[in-house]
TrEMBL record:
Its main location: cytoplasm. Residues 1-30 are annotated as: Disordered. It is found in: Cytoplasm. It comes from Streptomyces griseus subsp. griseus (strain JCM 4626 / CBS 651.72 / NBRC 13350 / KCC S-0626 / ISP 5235). GO terms for cellular component: cytoplasm. Residues 34-98 form the 4Fe-4S Wbl-type domain. [4Fe-4S] cluster binds at C35, C65, C68, C74. Upon Fe-S cluster removal intramolecular disulfide bonds are formed. The Fe-S cluster can be nitrosylated by nitric oxide (NO). The lineage of its organism: Bacteria, Bacillati, Actinomycetota, Actinomycetes, Kitasatosporales. GO terms for molecular function: 4 iron, 4 sulfur cluster binding; dinitrosyl-iron complex binding; DNA binding; metal ion binding; protein-disulfide reductase [NAD(P)H] activity. Belongs to the WhiB family. One of its GO terms (biological process) is negative regulation of DNA-templated transcription. Its cofactor is [4Fe-4S] cluster. This is Transcriptional regulator WhiB.
């Protein structure tokens, strides 16, 4: 897993301690991340976070993502890894799971359509 722009806090209840992004591992998008200084710890849940607090924190993180110049790259990274925790590219972990399921379904449908087209072409 790459060094994230924001530090994961899956088991901690303290604000994130940010470290410089590693461009060599993550690509140039990493250094432009709007969340490089996540002093508020918006992007990962502290342990035992109440639902209302989680929803408010995730919305605040998404507002940061919405003005981030590398949101598309970040989102694609998080989908391809896939990153299991935190807000990445404006999506929560649950939203990424839905996006990945849609992508897999679309890929299956495209493959099936291509196979059908090949059979029709072969039949002449
Ligand atoms: S899109 Fe969000 S999570 Fe990704 S680098 Fe930008 S601010 Fe950070």
């Amino acid at each position: 897993m790459l060094q994230p722009p924001h530090q994961p806090l899956p088991f901690a209840a303290v604000p994130a301690q940010r470290t410089p992004a590693r461009e060599d591992d993550a690509g140039p998008w990493h250094s432009d991340a709007a969340c490089r200084r996540d002093e508020a710890g918006l992007f990962f849940a502290p342990s035992k976070e109440p639902t209302a607090a989680r929803l408010a924190r995730e919305e605040a993180a998404k507002r940061v993502c919405a003005r981030c110049p590398v949101m598309v790259e970040c989102q694609e990274h998080a989908l391809m890894q896939p990153e299991p925790y935190g807000v990445w590219g404006g999506l929560t972990a649950a939203e990424r799971r839905v996006a990945l399921a849609r992508r897999r379904r679309r890929d299956i449908e495209l493959t099936a359509a291509a196979t059908t087209a090949e059979h029709i072409a072969a039949a002449g």
